[in-house]
Amino acid sequence: MNTLNYLDIKLEQTSKEKVVLTMMVDDKHLQPFGLMHGGINAVLIETATSIGANDSLDTTKQVAVGLDLQVNHLKSAVKGDSLTITATPNHIGKMTQVWQAVITNQTQQKISVGRCTLMVKTRD
């Protein structure tokens, strides 16, 4: 089982210009105090940015993998919240890519923001 399936992350839009994912917060996303675990924000941001970065590559020859991830948690999310993750590129280079992502809830409040630097690797 992959991360998208396990965490019930849905692909809404994918391209080399923009990636949009959605996820409904459920019990499996929570930490013991009933709030969504901050690591889920990191997973969502790196997932969205990685999908976008790889859409700009011929993945039979190259793959983009996370090199650095920065996440700021801005607001708590709880069970039943509907999250939208939107990622866009800041830089698409031959060896690295830099993407930013914003996670919002159903009322358009920002839950988290982040940036991911990805390294472009040649497949063996």
UniProtKB/TrEMBL annotation:
GO MF, any single term: 1,4-dihydroxy-2-naphthoyl-CoA thioesterase activity
Keywords of this entry: Hydrolase
GO cellular component, one term: cytosol
Domain Thioesterase: residue ranges: 33-110
InterPro entries named in the record: HotDog_dom_sf (IPR029069), PAAI_dom (IPR003736), Thioestr_dom (IPR006683)
UniProt KW Hydrolase keyword: yes
Keyword Hydrolase: yes
UniProt family annotation: Belongs to the thioesterase PaaI family.
Name of the protein this chain belongs to: Aromatic compound catabolic protein
Source organism phylogeny: Bacteria, Bacillati, Bacillota, Bacilli, Lactobacillales
